[in-house]
Amino acid sequence: MPRIAEARRPAEPSSPEQKERYRRIQQAAARHGAAKGLERVQMHDVAKDAGVAIATLYRYFPSKTHLFTALMGARVSELWDLVADSPRAEDPAAAVSELLVGAGRQLLARPLLAHAMMQSNNASVATSDSPVTKVFADLMLEVLDLDDPDEDQEQLVRIAESAWYGIIMSALNGHITAEQAEWDTRVACRRLLGDF
Q1: 58-66 — which CB contacts under 8 Å span 24+ positions?
Q2: Angle separating helix axes 64-84 and 111-127, nearest 10 degrees
Q3: Which pLDDT score, from 0 to 100, does residue 9 have?
Q4: Residue 39, phi then psi, degrees to nearest 5
Q5: Angle at 74 between CA 15 and CA 107, to 5 degrees
Q6: Which residue from 62, 170, 179, 184 puts its CA 20 to 30 A from 1's CA?
Q7: What pLDDT is attached to residue 8?
Q8: pLDDT per position in the chain (196 positions), as tens?
Q9: 3-class secondary-structure state, position 62
Q10: Reported pTM
Q11: Residue 110 gets which letter from DSSP?
């Protein structure tokens, strides 16, 4: 009977060389994900294109789910940098709307990669508590300038995030256009967050 692999936490890069290898792995995964989608990405190809041994790849990313969830996390971190550099908005709901519209544009520009990241994040949420989802909600609260949100505010942010996620999936699946996705995102933010 085959042994079942024991689940383990991914290693975190600490030295500059490790961080560089980690970055190269993510860049290679993004290229492969954008060209092939999650199912057709081969970890050996990612390792080869990143110039690392397959054992190094698996050390940081035990599975494709880990790899593409981490890639989505990196995209959310980039959004944090944008928010940190922006002045406080007079209309917080509109600011969240524009943040989500911008994030949606980035995702829809590379649909196969977006599917890979979102599918991996969904799998991550199903088996544990995805850090990406929590960070994204925190990002929205930051844009809304809510340091100490009450339960109702947290709920509305969660619903807005879920609505946006569903809108993006509808666009990725061809049910609505990119323009409709932007419009729907703005409407959802205005109706859910307009009183903030």
Answers
A1: 59/10, 59/11, 60/10, 60/11, 60/12, 60/13, 60/21, 60/22, 60/25, 61/10, 61/25, 62/7, 62/8, 62/10, 64/38, 64/116, 64/120, 65/120, 65/123, 65/124, 66/10, 66/120, 66/124
A2: 110
A3: 76
A4: -65, -30
A5: 155
A6: 62
A7: 66
A8: 333 344 667 888 888 999 999 999 999 999 999 999 999 999 999 999 999 999 999 999 999 999 999 999 888 888 887 777 676 778 888 999 999 999 999 999 999 999 999 999 888 776 665 667 778 888 899 889 888 999 999 999 999 999 999 999 999 999 999 999 999 999 999 999 988 7
A9: coil
A10: 0.84
A11: S
Tokens 């061809």 found at: 174
Place of tokens 């209309």: 91
Q: Which two tokens stand for residue 129?
A: 């508590």
- For 148, the token pair is 């100490």
Cα(142)–Cα(160) distance, integer angstroms: 14
- Cα–Cα distances (Å) from 150 to 37, 93, 109, 117, 153, in that order, read 39, 16, 35, 30, 5
Dump pLDDT digits (tens) for 54-67. 999 999 999 999 99
Tokens of 38: 């999650």
